[in-house]
Structures are given as structure tokens and as C-alpha cells.
Amino acid sequence: MARILISLGWAYYKKAQIEERDDYLFMALQKLEEAIKLLEDPYIFEHLET
Question: Is the model's pTM score more than 0.85?
């Protein structure tokens, strides 16, 4: 489940970049926060650096 949330968060993040929409960025951060809670892995946010 966490890996799905990571992928979904990444997709929302990329969509936010392309469409320049903050609502997608907010959704991306929500999904990544959920994934972090499930995996207890703080390094997930490194995806946002690429």
C-alpha cells in the first residue's frame, strides 16, 4: 500500500509541476506523508528533489 501511495504522490507532484497547480502539490504531499507513516521511511521525500 505504501508503495502505491509513493507512486501516486509522485504522479501528483509531476502533474503539479507541469500544470503549475498548488492543489496537486498539496495532494502529492498528503500521499507522501501517508506513505511515510506506513513505511516509517523518512527518505521518501528525496523523490521531490529530482
Answer: no
